[in-house]
Amino acid sequence: MAQVRVRFAPSPTGPLHIGGVRTALYNYLFAKKNNGVFILRIEDTDQARFVEGAEEYIMESLEWCGMKVDEGIREGGAYGPYRQSDRQAIYRQYADMLVEKGDAYYAFDTPEQLEIMRGESEKEGKTFIYNASVREKLNNSISLNKPEWEEKLRKGEAYVIRYRMPADQEIHFDDIIRGHIVVNTSTLDDKVLFKSDGMPTYHLANIVDDHLMKISHVIRGEEWLPSLPLHFMLYRSFGWDPPLFSHLPLLLKPDGKGKLSKRDGDKMGFPVFPLYWPYGETAKGYREDGYYPEAFVNMLALLGWNPGTEQELFSIKELIEAFSIDRVGKSGSRFDPDKAKWFNHQYLQKRSNNQLAIEFRELLRSHGIFVDIVELESLVALVKERASFVKDLWEQTDFFFKAPDTYDPEVIKKRWKEETAGQLNELKALLEKIDDFSSASTEPVVKDWIEKKGYNIGAIMNAFRLVIVGASRGPHMFDIIEWIGKEETLRRIEKGVSIITR
Ligand code: GLU
């Protein structure tokens, strides 16, 4: 096989949707698996849709996900430039080549004329398709004679160059995921290849660039499947070998009803973009929501591809090893925000206590809390099981850093009895006498005392938790008091009893 060269070819029209990130990822995995080259090409021929900041956003997203670009606008490469607007001078000659061959032609129809034609077809109950069925009746270099259209060109009349789709022909082509496809050309229109603004359209630029950049495989979203017959025809007209095509299935909304759209995130409360988008209508990102890039990438990889085993957790290296296009499905994959969280939970559990403590320390600093890293390691170990994100660690541990100011009234109502204050004062006296405040040392002493006194263990422990934590939550009680220490434990019992009994 010739060298594998694949490209991710986004248009910089806004933030990159996670469906786009998945397309990039499959290209990346396929390239790396086959010792190939991963190219980033910016397709910005549609200047009207260009959005400032989108190009940087795309590159930053790939970088965050760990997809290193081999050739691109920043990296350079032997087949550059990699931004289509910088390649403008290249395309015209290819459009001319097709005109010369008779596979493309000049069309002078104004938008108003086309509108009229559309209206007339509608009246007859037909859809207007600009192709062999009507082109002779329209205003172009096929219907007009040569001196006429040459005169128009000379006078500088506005025109586009259209592909001359042959009439009533069956075209056969293949897609790695979809298999063999047959389309009759009479259903296709004479697509514009070159616009009056001197820019190629997506179709022409895309085919010319894939050819010049020696792209071996095109892996892209399903929305481009309808363009595939035209693309095959263009390769045929140019006399070039087409690359192999794979059209990826759609990402669906969590309820499976329709395509996951850019707006769904806001509506359903989860991000649909990898990073926060700061311009205009801002949007949430996975990075800022606290996802690890490894977890995000792992989750995305499995939305459409399956390894054929039960394995769900894959490092990027393992993904590269396991990936194959054959195992990408045809049907859409439903996006599941809970599963995304599950992945992050798994990756957080895999982190060492030291790594987590370092990450957590950053967050604590923003709360004005400064704690020694070794102490944080022991704290993180107590609660990490319940956390899916670093920010959850804070929700699980806030009471470690400061005594409660309020006490859950529900718990008081249910647990606080006549005798509770007295019992907690006894407990305080008992703890005061213990020097070794480790969990292993305090637990048996306290339990012994409860048993000897014939107290109800549930009642004591719940009240104890209430004065230490302020509510009925948190890890093992004796682990908590070990971490906050003897002085603080005694202070909290005293404070709690006095406030609750007031
Ligand atoms: N520029 C197209 C897009 O934005 C690329 C389609 C393709 O990969 O051919 O999706």
Structure, described:
The structure is a single chain. This protein has helices at residues 18-33, 54-65, 88-101, 111-123, 146-155, 202-212, 228-238, 264-268, 293-301, 316-322, 337-350, 353-366, 373-383, 390-401, 409-415, 420-432, 439-453, 457-469, 477-484, 486-500, and strands at residues 5-8, 37-40, 104-107, 160-163, 170-175, 179-184, 192-194, 217-221, 244-248, 251-252, 333-334. The chain is mainly alpha-helical. Strands 3-4-7 form a 3-stranded antiparallel beta sheet. A two-stranded parallel sheet has the order 1-2. A two-stranded antiparallel ribbon has the order 5-6. The chain is elongated. The N and C termini lie far apart (82 Å). The mean pLDDT is 95. The structure holds glutamic acid (GLU). Residues 9-11, 43, 202, 206, 220, 224 line the site of glutamic acid. Glutamic acid binds next to helix 6.
Key phrases:
binds glutamic acid, three-stranded antiparallel β-sheet, single chain, 46% helix, 20 helices
